User: Fold these one by one.
Assistant:
Number 1:
Amino acid sequence: MAAHIVDRLPEGADWMYEVKFDGYRALLIKDDERLQIRSRNEKDLTATYPTIAAAARRIQAEQAVVDGEIVAVDSTGRPSFQALQHRSAHPGHAIVFYAFDLLHLDGLDLTNAPLEKRRANLPTVLNGSGILLSSELPGSATDVVTAVRALRLEGVIAKRRGSRYVPGERSADWLKLKLDRQQEFVVGGYRPGPHGIDALLVGYYEGSELRFAGKVRAGFTPHVRRDVFAQLSPLEQPECPFVDLPNSKASHWGGGVTQEQMKEMRWLKPKLAAQIRFVEWTADGHLRHAAFLGVRQDKRALTIHRET
């Protein structure tokens, strides 16, 4: 179940609020001794996150499906998507799982149960396991946003009390407010440079067409450039995948790509997604001051559209 993006959270007793964690959405699926961590695009992440798998095996149930987020946190508990992506470069971060919903418990399907009933079982089910509980944030929507912004966290999720869980759908019963403007984009090309990459060329799908959103140069270290370049190289192709390149606009980095600059680029099969932070969309539909946060292995490229 996914959330709609909003510019303002709803107020009132009908809503509860949680931190929007900056990580990978996943399900913990336990069936007796069998345990799987499954991403939202059906990838098996069990071997990738052995500490989470070990904790999930200690869940207080014979059978359970727990919805939540894989997050890398520092010693103060602050999440970092970059640390989750590049763990070897951030040895001080721990990989944890924050649980926020319970979909099945010992043979009982809870998806049609009210949100509060599903969550009421979580403290007991998680007790002593090492899986963390995403707690409800107290106060009004205004209070919550002020507190989360002060902590420099990514955003807030609002969930309607009494709502049921609708798998695979983006529901108006779940709403998300991003305090840090970012979203996923499809990587359709790159400009070669130091350590393999000078900049990424990213876009989004509009119907079946891949639209160019901008060039991304910031947010890289030499280690990250080499790591991302290794993931891009097998995807190279001769054709540009963007339907609206080249364009005739003056090309600042982050703006368009001229006909002459097309010769400098390397084009890719549009299969890889990246998380990008940016300041705003320009009037001609490009990203301003974009920075790379990490590759998203949990997103299908064809599902990525312009969010704001």
Number 2:
Amino acid sequence: MGLLDGKVAVVTGSGGGIGKYHALALAKEGAKVVINDVGGDRSGAGGGKAMADLVVDEIKALGGEAAANHDSVATIEGGEAIVKTALDAFGRIDILVNNAGILRDKSLLKMDEAMWDGVIAVHLKGTFACTRPAAQWMKENGEGGRIINTSSTSGLLGNFGQSNYGAAKAGIAGFTRVCAIELAKYGITCNALVPVAKTRMTEDLPAFAGLEEGMLDPAHIAPVMIFLASDLGKDITGKFFLIRGPQISMMEVQTTEGVAREDMWTPQEIADDIDKIMAW
């Protein structure tokens, strides 16, 4: 018996990297899985069916059930088609893992519109484009569901050369919190993973320099996803799980105690009390 027997999951961008680990883990726990991947390179260029199809074949060879989808998450039509693939192939959708992503890194002053728009479209719009139809079906089905998004330390903490990616991932964090609030009454949870792992997207990033190889193994991410996708995590929503190798942490927005006045602040008074205002 698996933790996800009888469930149907969609994983975007699951032709390789973290997404493939997610898909294989879901299948191992008994879920039927839709493998979505456009087959492009890490910048979003190119495309093909081989990446998604090979993962489907691998799952089937292990005795699982899977179906391929090659639509882009970056359009509303693509998101709806991805969800429709699950409904057509397996009759339902219980779990959505928004994992698809691309990188077009460049420092702010060198970034052009295409670099910005492409990354925002795949990460942020793509998360919306898939979540809305999936959540709509989950609501109408009346049995709840699990939505698991993918944020990043680049969005929550910042990283040089990734203003587009960081903005998208910060947006996904806000989107996750709103979805958790709005969908709770339907029994649908919404959480986000914040993975630190070496894949073809991240293998040459300076931020990973000096980290032990074991801390970068993408296999460490999937167990947290399975926990959130299963009934083990049914009471958790609106949270951000940072995974660095075998270490799991929580990330959250915090507010200092601050300083209150009875009347309007002046800029000079703010300057005088800034250390108290900012103190934890």
Number 3:
Amino acid sequence: MAETASIPVVRSRRLRFDWLMPALFRPRQTFAEIAAQPHGVWLTPLLVLSATGLIHAIVAGVFKQAAVQSGGMSLPPGFEYYTPEQQAQFQQAMAATSGPVFVYVFPAIFSVLGVWVGWLIVSGLLHLTFTLLGGRSSTSLASNLVAWGGLPLALRDVVRIVAMLVSRQLITHPGLSGFAPADDGGFSIYLAQLLGLIDLYIIWHFVLLALGARAGTGLTKFKAWVGPFITLLAVLLIQALFGYLSVQLSSLETIRPFLF
């Protein structure tokens, strides 16, 4: 009776913490390995991004609540022209939104949701861009690249957390927003929102996506850089638009107390 040789089944590891540091500091080799994976390996970086975003939201909440309690909350333009009743209503609303739910719970939830929803959106756009450029892309490839390419954003959270703990105050001018014109025009507000999203870490993110695209899509070097650039530019422009709308809405008396 012939014996049947059993072939061992090699199961892929879902959590790849061993890729975290190499993805940041040895990206060419690591992203070539990530791009070669036939399945999703995106869980580890998304968990890291969720954790750093959650901690950042909590630390920011501590200093935001301290600023409100010390009377350092920002007042809307023309507050001195409000009637006493309107001023009292505004202060009551600010006091209501300085509770733990508004300061900690909602920002924490939105931070984690932003990681996962943003990952889905950017992955879909990147997959579409690669396909239009003629690359051999797949949903799994784009999802893996966006997740692991987002690790610099987790490092940015860590840097911001440390900066807040050291300075004991919130970061009011992130990114390049300090270079925006100092006037209240609509374009200046939009430009400030856009520049606030641009920093060393988003550039690092872009470089990692380009390296992964070069390794996994078969695109030329030029197209491998163009694809992530177009995708991230579109995402940043949309994010800046939402930020601009938020600022515009926050200037309305009936809406401002409920924004945070």
